[in-house]
Hints:
Layout: E1 6-12, H1 18-31, E2 44-49, H2 65-78, E3 82-85, H3 94-100, E4 113-114, E5 120-124, E6 133-137, H4 138-141, E7 145-155, E8 159-161, H5 163-166, H6 173-182, H7 186-200, E9 204-214, E10 222-232, H8 235-245, H9 254-261, E11 272-277, E12 285-287, H10 290-297, H11 309-315, E13 325-328, H12 338-342, E14 350-351, E15 361-362, H13 372-376, E16 382-385
Helix pairs in contact: 1-2, 7-9, 8-9
Bound molecules: iron/sulfur cluster (SF4) (2 copies).
Residues 326, 342-343, 345, 349-350, 362, 367-373 line the site of one iron/sulfur cluster (SF4).
Amino acid sequence: xxxxxxxxxxxxxxxxxxxxxxxxxxxxxxxxxxxxxxxxxxxxxxxxxxxxxxxxxxxxxxxxxxxxxxxxxxxxxxxxxxxxxxxxxxxxxxxxxxxxxxxxxxxxxxxxxxxxxxxxxxxxxxxxxxxxxxxxxxxxxxxxxxxxxxxxxxxxxxxxxxxxxxxxxxxxxxxxxxxxxxxxxxxxxxxxxxxxxxxxxxxxxxxxxxxxxxxxxxxxxxxxxxxxxxxxxxxxxxxxxxxxxxxxxxxxxxxxxxxxxxxxxxxxxxxxxxxxxxxxxxxxxxxxxxxxxxxxxxxxxxxxxxxxxxxxxxxxxxxxxxxxxxxxxxxxxxxxxxxxxxxxxxxxxxxxxxxxxxxxxxxxxxxxxxxxxxxxxxxxxxxxxxxx
Length: 388
Ligand code: SF4
Ligand code: SF4
């Protein structure tokens, strides 16, 4: 019997011109079988973009508004009448992040309403392998179907953030800090992320890779045009295609490894069917070997942490000093304290120990390397590096 492969659709899209994006998103969803294969029009839908923090659309920090609007328009055209969209950022609110992208809380978009995602509700999950309950934003519990509209970005802790990582935003702001404390390395943290997927079972994953983020992601990296939109019902396969595009070993990404181990999907190229679709042409999507696709559309120079040493470091604590840690660049620091306030460690793993006239200082014994400080620094003053 032939093994069923995870299908990933790739649609070229050179920029964020709204009609172009709409056509590409429509084509990608069509190539996966159309919205009718994922949901019924009468179901309540929550669309979950990546809204890490309030940021300009062209900064590549968030899912681009053109992609989000295209998804909402397609849901409207399909006949969905109960659609909400939102995220719970680590810093500030989802509403502010959406306003920065041109949305308004009092103005529905193609009939869809903005979801504040600020009130949390407990959801029991007895089948959980890491957590037996999650505290999700209320809108998550009120949705029948979740559509994950993630962004292709680097991530200091997890190396990359794509489809699997994006659902962390279903937890409300402060809850995220507690999960970081409870799951302090990328392996266990990835397992918790996979459990979130197993709990809420999103129906569809769309990756905004028109302009990705490389370097100091997920909040302070450099926009990198990749010219693609990716679609799948398998978030691990989608992230594996992300890895292929940046010529990165998918096995170095814990969301892939744990995602496959916990039955969420596959990162193995031989179990992924990549189809290349042409915007506007619904009739045909062309199968393409993943390596050929990566050579044609990918970028081997994409700036990301490809080192394999962390795999060793995880098992040999004596080498932990060689793993990447947050480093503050004093010349860029404005001493705002946002990094300190976001550190989830009790008693804080960084503080203004030298006074407020100086940058905060790390406590290397306490730091769990969650990189929440790096994610939230508004000055891009924190990067992943090595402590002397
Ligand atoms: S958040 Fe950034 S700018 Fe603010 S104190 Fe921390 S390192 Fe400095
Ligand atoms: S100092 Fe930064 S990386 Fe270390 S635990 Fe605190 S927020 Fe996480």
